[in-house]
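Incident log, structure service

09:12 report received: a user says their structure output differs between two submissions of the same chain.
09:20 pulled the input from the user's history:
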Amino acid sequence: MKPDLSPLWTKVCVEDDVKSFEVLYYLLFNRLIKFCIYYVGKKEVAEEIISDILVRCWENRKAETVILNLETYLFTAVRNQSLKYIKKHAHVHLVEIEPSNEFQFMDRADPEKELENKELHHKLDQAIDKLPQQARIIFKLIKESGMKYKEVAEILEISPRTVQTQLFRAIDKLRVSLKAYHQLYTHDTKTDNTLDLTVLIFILHIFYFL
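09:34 re-ran on a clean worker, output below:
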């Protein structure tokens, strides 16, 4: 369950509480960095953008007491600033973020199964990075940040229905991408329908439980 940031933000705005701002900073910084990198592709650029936004939040705290959802507000600000950066540096080649290999689903009792899972996770990372940008961002916002369709829709300025559609399409593309690899690597002899279900369960297990 995500922490309720409202009490912390109220203390920042009303009481000028530096400690509460520090807590907010550490709760949100890494997630905001990841989100920004989805757009700009460079960690150092993302860090600069996030730092500027958070500094402005502190400086304008008295005027921003009306913010109802700080998380959505900050993610939206990051998106807008990232798009401004991309527009300003359109002539610069952006380097795609490398797969993070963050998934850690292993069966240590079975080394062969552990290796298989690690390889599948790596392939899943690669498949996610090949998704269209908006689908990739939606997938990661919901999976990594635990956001609801409505929150993602507000940040990306699209409808919740579009978020849902993009998410389902992303999952389907991942299923197709992993199916061939799973069959080749594991020498799986299951029928197509059974193998489809096996791969889909693998993706959904990661998506919903990690």
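09:41 both user submissions now match this output. Likely a transient worker issue. Closing.
09:42 reviewer note: Residues 84 and 90 are 10 Å apart (CA to CA). Confidence is low (pLDDT under 50) at residues 92-108, 186-191.
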